[in-house]
Design a protein that fits this description.
alpha/beta
């Protein structure tokens, strides 16, 4: 199944349903899910009834549509989905799977009468199905970091991609640009926004305060993850600076927090936003609720530490693995992951061995080598070399997304050996069933960890490369915790 980017089908389908919810629309290559997560947490803490649509889903279809941070109930989801599918058939709209999901999400939000909906773009912006939201419903459009990804659909350069993503701007509405790696993105985004009659703004930077030492002991039992990041944000919307501990890890999350807090500030100060939301809701957003919302935010699969419930190897008496789990799926997110690993890894008084568990989506023209180059080979913060083992495998195909395919393990093996010639590599067979590949990769990883620890070294396990592999990991953890449940 190919992806045909157009708004024609989804406009026809969406016209069959009423949508009136005030909405925040977020595009970007990396970080848009995190910004949506932070916004939802802050607004929920401020007593808003919040709907959120992220894609792709993590574990099940239901978790990409949430009401007050809880996945939509299967009953409400299927009630809305059936109505959308019936309309699609009756008017012969021929909507794609993602278009059906998008209209279902909007119908769920309308049925739930959410005070505000936070909607993440699926891919691109201008022709993404989420751009069907009516102009009058959009409160704010926002753009997170833009980088190379999906070039086959969005353009071969960062500038072309930025132009597509900035095109979610709406006439008379604020458009907020987040921190960018490439300076040209700012000028291009501003040009597009002004052409469309929007109001162009840049995010207000967040400051860090206090000690920035994030190193951890990888051998401590129980494992103690790195502390959160102490932040300070100053805006005219609040009488004094807001200080909060951000529980999300990585320097890039500070940029995402900056964008989220600038959006919150704009809701409070922009006349178009104030006219669209009731005063009692806006008055509920205070420095206290913003701080509490930041500190309670949770976004699994993004630089998340997890201790396995038990060893996965039958009969093992070793301590369970500790994993750093991250859905790094393009060069920019791999670079962020590599940077974070260098921050948390211990001083070179002990040998450090990292075992990577990797799977990637097939997404030409992006190659496995390009995605993994920032990550491999790793180095600690002193520049000392780190030894590695690498497991490469497939992930389970996500429900409702038949176009998503994993890169063959044999191709991943060639890619990682091209980057780390002396790596110890375990590879699943290309044509073997996917179901138990992650289990076997974790068993092999436990052997690497045991050998390293027996030799007096430190061991870190990093599971990365695709959110679909991250989803497989969370399903496996749930299965280990409750083996009689069907996930």
């Amino acid at each position: 199944m190919s992806i045909d980017l157009t708004l024609e089908r989804v406009r026809i389908l969406a016209s069959q349903f009423l949508y009136t919810r005030p909405s925040i629309h977020i595009a970007g290559t990396n970080g848009k899910g995190t910004v949506a997560c932070l916004l939802a947490s802050i607004l929920r803490t401020s007593s808003f009834n919040v709907g959120k649509f992220n894609s792709p889903h993590l574990i099940s279809t239901y978790d990409c549509i949430t009401i007050n941070d809880e996945p939509v109930t299967p009953e409400l989801y299927h009630e809305c989905r059936i109505r959308v599918e019936q309309a699609n058939e009756q008017i012969s709209a021929r909507a794609s799977s993602f278009e059906l999901l998008t209209v279902t999400a909007l119908l769920v939000f309308e049925r739930s009468a959410v005070d505000i909906a936070i909607v993440e773009v699926g891919m691109g912006g201008r022709l993404d199905a989420t751009n069907v939201i009516p102009d009058q419903c959009i409160l704010i459009s926002a753009l997170t970091a833009v980088d190379l990804d999906h070039q086959a659909f969005l353009g071969a350069t960062v500038d072309l991609i930025a132009r597509e993503k900035a095109a979610i701007a709406r006439r008379g509405k604020p458009f907020i640009l987040g921190h960018q790696k490439y300076s040209s993105v700012g000028s291009i985004a501003e040009e597009v926004v002004l052409q469309q009659g929007g109001t162009f703004m840049r995010s207000i930077p967040v400051k860090t305060v206090g000690d920035d030492d994030l190193s951890v002991s990888l051998s401590s039992v129980p494992f103690i993850p790195p502390r959160g990041q102490h932040t300070e944000f100053t805006s005219d919307a609040f009488g004094s600076p807001i200080r909060a501990i951000l529980p999300l890890h990585g320097t890039h999350q500070l940029h995402n927090l900056s964008l989220a807090l600038t959006i919150i500030s704009t809701l409070l100060t922009d006349s178009s936003c104030r006219g669209a939301l009731s005063p009692h809701l806006l008055h509920a957003i205070t420095a206290h609720t913003v701080r509490a919302g930041i500190e309670s935010a949770s976004w699994p699969g993004r630089l998340s530490f997890h201790t396995m419930p038990r060893p996965v190897t039958p009969g093992s008496t070793r301590n369970p693995l500790v994993l750093l789990v991250d859905g790094a799926h393009n060069p920019a997110s791999s670079e962020a992951l590599a940077s974070y690993i260098s921050l948390i890894t211990p001083s070179p008084s002990r040998t450090l061995h990292i075992t990577y568990i990797l799977a990637l989506s097939h997404s030409p023209p992006k190659t496995p080598q390009q995605t993994l180059f920032p990550l491999l080979p790793p180095r600690d913060r002193t520049g000392s070399p780190v030894t590695v083992s690498i497991a490469v495998l497939r992930f389970n195909p996500p429900d409702g997304m038949p176009w998503v395919q994993s890169v063959a393990p044999s191709k991943l093996r060639v890619a990682v050996l091209g980057l780390v010639t002396n790596a110890n590599v375990w590879a699943a067979e290309d044509d073997e069933p996917v179901d138990n590949q992650l289990q076997r990769a974790l068993e092999w990883t436990e052997l690497q960890a045991a050998q390293t620890q027996d030799e007096g070294g430190e061991h870190l396990t990093v599971l990365a490369g695709s959110l679909y592999l991250v989803a497989d990991f969370y399903r496996l953890v749930k299965q280990i915790e409750a083996p009689h449940l069907t996930i």
